[in-house]
Model the fold of this input.
Amino acid sequence: MTEIAKRLKLVRKQVHAAAERAGREPEDIAIVAVTKNVDDIDIIEAVRGGISILGENRVQEARAKFGKLGNDIDGNKVSWHLVGHLQRNKARQALPIFELIHSLDSWKLAQEMERVAEKLDITAECLLEINVTGKSTRIGIEPENALALARDISALSRVRLRGVMSIAPAVEDPPQARPYFRMTREICEKISDAGLFCPGKVHLSMGMTHDFEVAVEEGATMIRIGTGIFGPRFRKAVL
Done:
């Protein structure tokens, strides 16, 4: 068994245990393998191990990988998600690649995505990124403004809001992230209760390698795992 296969087995075991603690079905939690700075050969290995969602932080890096790997890797269908910040001037490059964009965080970005999607005659599936840290320097819409922004986005014809995403602040002890995940879930529920999501499953993207078990306990339907699958990665030049 390869190291990636071993790590995947451990992550799935931890997801299963966390889901059981919360009275949830493990199958309801999707693992997004975050492939920032990951070589193609390791991505292929993860897909062979059952990964079907690949998450990228940068549009430029994703374009290079997508150009070589596409949506069919070694006979397995995969989808690409953007889990990092999307700049408005990169929307034209991003929309044809990503099945889901986790990081819609402003009305201006939503408007640009609507314009690009209209021009390409496609739809843009998105999550609303919430800044739950209370720090103005972090990316994401403020919790108190999330409902209003969701309402504006729901009026667009090409941008489809499917749920929310958040990044908890770095903490020494994973349970310390619980209030941030709980806040994310509660905001998601308010938006859902207002009928502002598109029909279908509502996605709650939260939790990374250090804290994903707590996120699962708090309702995450997608967890974003990089180091937990691929191990520590050295920073490489942006492609």
Observations:
- The first strand starts at residue 30 and ends at 34.
